[in-house]
Amino acid sequence: KIQIIASRVRLYRSLQRIIPFLIVRKCAQLATLLKRGIMSSSVESFQGQRVVFANKQAFEEKLKQFKLDGPSKLSVVSDFDFTITKFYMNGVRGASCHKIIEDCGLMAAEYHDEAQGLQAKYYPLEVDPTLNMEEKTKFMIEWVEKAHELLELHGLTRSVVTRAVHSALATGKVGLREKADTFLSLASSSKVPSLIFSAGIADVLEEILREQMAVDWSQVHVISNRCIFEESGEGKVTGFEQPLLHVFNKKSTAYLHTNFFNTEDIKDRTNLLLLGDSLGDITMSEGMEINDDRIIKVGFLNDRVERMDQYLEKYDVVILDDPGFDIPYYLLQEICEPKSD
Fold first, then answer.
1. Assigned CATH class of 42-336
2. pTM score, two decimals?
3. How far apart are the first and last CA of the chain?
4. Could you tell me the Gene Ontology terms of the biological process aspect for this record (predicted)?
């Protein structure tokens, strides 16, 4: 009996030490979850999709002003890879513009091996939360430069671009989000200029859009890494237009001389709908001289939800689960086709 009592005393004393620790630890975990904004109570349904608002009242006030101003004051700036296109295709990660070429099997085996090696090395660095922006930017510049050097070295042609895109679409490796085509069509018919601002390859994304929808190129503009093809022979790529774009240098400042920005019409548009899927996409509006309270920022958080706190610092609303384009389309409808009371 003495041994049993002694054993229970030791257990009691151990619990006295452990229980406060467990309580503190649990509180810390809860605090972290609250900070990240991923507590179930903060996730809500909006237009049938799971979202988290940074500040719902501020979001609603912005939308109300956009509706009052109408489509004549609106422009759209959107990322392409995994914003207009889906992140998951048939249960696996979809292909970006670069990856469509890297995995197409239409070029030398050495090219595909080396390009896929770059993807395996640099993508984890792009999304690594322990690296600061300066470190990430250095790696992204390296990635883009090396990827483009490989395309030049192994002779990418216009024909390969067309065939690679057709194959990727046919085999379900890439696809537009549902209603993305309807969104762009409504923007065009409402005379709302749309800029697709991408660190991918312009020639690839334009081919995807041509195959998936009827594009009004007078209203849809593209700023991306554009190939320079030789005029003779097989039309091989000889370089890329400058400056090169990567995920963390997408700023309008460097492109204010281009057609999209260099019109009086765009200068009179004081409201912006910005769509992206990365933290770097937020800078797409830099240089447009539009006040922050006149920008509705919609972010797709396709994976790694532990980044939620960072996304909520940048975006007005964060969309979860890689769904369709219902929310951007709804917002555009509300602005361009307001319902009568």
1. alpha beta
2. 0.85
3. 81
4. nucleotide metabolic process
